[in-house]
Amino acid sequence: MTSDLRDFSGQIVLVVGAASGIGRAAAQLIASRGATVIITDLDQPGLSSLQQELNLKSNQVKNVDLGSQSSIQSLVASVISDHHQIDALVNTGGIVGPTNTKLEDTDWAAFEKTVSINLFGTIWLTQEVIPHMKSRKYGRIAHVASIAGKEGNPGMHAYNTSKSGMIGFIKGVGKEVATEGITINAFAPAVIRTPFNAGTSDETLKYMLGRIPMGRVGEPEEAAEMLAFMVSKACSFTTGFTFDASGGRATY
Ligand SMILES: NC(=O)c1ccc[n+]([C@@H]2O[C@H](COP(=O)([O-])OP(=O)(O)OC[C@H]3O[C@@H](n4cnc5c(N)ncnc54)[C@H](O)[C@@H]3O)[C@@H](O)[C@H]2O)c1
Question: Which Pfam families match (predicted)?
Answer without folding.
Answer: adh_short_C2
